[in-house]
Tubby C 2
Amino acid sequence: MKLLFKQRMFSWFDSYDIYNEAGDAVYEVKGVLSWGHCLKIFGPDGAELGTVKEEVFSFLPRFVLYVGGECVGQIKKEFTFFKPVFTLDCSGWSIEGDMWEWNYLVSDADGRTVMTVQKELLNWTDTYVLDIADSADALYCLMVVLAIDAAKCSQNG
């Protein structure tokens, strides 16, 4: 399953539209006023599906993931010099990026690819293509990419 992740250009808070391969909007992400990033994910019917919330009092970027109001885990950036590495404590996934922080590989504990993420260049806003091995993981994969993008914004801004 592939998803196209596009940040909206004109928005007070972080907002994203997520499209499937057919070009249909399958998720909408809206930023919420809070300390740190707080991103709420909505389905095509407008129902809230999940939240990615930044913990502001941490040395390196850390985000808590919520589904249906329940905490399902967290993702945090590790201290590295060249390639960005994130750990996700809820599923045993590991996340490794290239040194430009454009492309990411998410693997499970057995080394199988869960998702690849590629940043599309030459766009006005952040745009990523998510290639997800199992469509049942789509929401979690989207949450991971939202946290990585927000971590990059926090680091650069």
